[in-house]
Amino acid sequence: MKKITIAIDGFSSTGKSTVAKELAKALSYIYVDTGAMYRAVTWYAITNGFISDKKFDKEGLIKMLDDIDLKFKFDEALGYAAIYLNGKNIEDKIRTMEVSKLVSPIAEISEIRSKLVAMQKEMGKDKGVVMDGRDIGTVVFPDAELKLFMTASAEKRATRRYKELLDKGHKVTFEEVLENVEKRDYIDSHREDSPLVQADDAIYFDNSNLGLENQFERILSLAKRRIAEV
Ligand code: C5P
Hints:
Blueprint: E1 5-10, H1 16-27, E2 30-33, H2 34-47, H3 58-63, E3 70-75, E4 80-85, E5 88-89, H4 97-107, H5 110-123, E6 129-133, H6 136-140, E7 146-151, H7 154-167, H8 174-190, E8 203-206, H9 212-229
Parallel strand pairs: 1-6, 1-7, 2-6, 7-8
Antiparallel strand pairs: 3-4, 4-5
The protein binds cytidine-5'-monophosphate (C5P).
């Protein structure tokens, strides 16, 4: 059976990564969470004093790009690959509100995008990959055989993210999460380099009123059909 490339793009907290992980598992494909890579660079920038809610030393961060080594390693307990920054597992550091608030300005920087996009292309070069992010179907794999674009209302997405954060014991308010979701949507879709846009050939899914399980079955059968066609 030939392997294909599956690109999943969309706004934050639309269930992209849940669908991507399940799809990769069902097809025995590799799953790559590109958001984790931008979050890891943000964590590096925070811990090395390049960014905070008061300052942003862009040029300083760009100069240090060669010092940022990112790797994914499969984690049995998680059931997917955890992200490592300079040899350290930082999976539990990157999903906080602190990182969520600073990641979109970091992801606007072209030098950072070029570095991460090159790594993403390398990870998917043999196909058999499900990659989720904002620019996968438009920039990273414009020739992907299957492209999905996922969205849902901002309220629905914020509600999901808020629940997830509370379950993990984070102290956040719903308003704070909603504001972050809306801010990131705006920056991600208005930036100059690789803005979030739906690729012409992507299939559009709005799951505001649909359970993710229903959606997954539809997406899996779409993927199987595309695999049979190539
Ligand atoms: O997917 P996730 O919400 O974890 O992504 C975090 C942020 O990383 C996004 O809001 C966006 O700013 C950035 N990102 C990006 N391009 C990608 C993946 C994520 O700009 N391919």
